[in-house]
Amino acid sequence: MSNNTQFSIAVHIMTGLGYKDGADMTSSSLARSVNTCPSFVRRVLSKLSKAGLVHTTTGKAGTCTLAKKASEISLFDIYEAVDAPKAFSIHGYDVQKPCPVSCNIKAALERVLEKTQLSVEDSLKSITLEEVVSDVKSV
Length: 139
Prior knowledge:
By secondary structure, this protein is mostly helical. Helices cover 56% and strands 4% of the residues. The longest helix has 26 residues, at 100-125. This is Rrf2 family transcriptional regulator.
């Protein structure tokens, strides 16, 4: 099973921008921090820009900066911006008709997923980017 790391990378990028406290940064410098290619960082930045979380300029000398104060950005804002996956996925195996567990497990897991997802989202809403930046600076 592959993991989708786009949310953690987006938080990494946003923390880098917040850490520099308003200074313009390039996708190349952010990519070095994340240890990935600048084109991937630009794709993530595009999503963050569309969500109104970063300002970007294009071109060879293009830069980006936070569009809001770090204290005004929640981790949920970032989570939504990059369309991160749900807390977990439910398997797609075919139902085995003779087995009552097989016939009903997906519906039961959907209810669990809904509760878990709401809990994750509520938690992310309560954490600001400023808190993450502060944690990074204090370590």
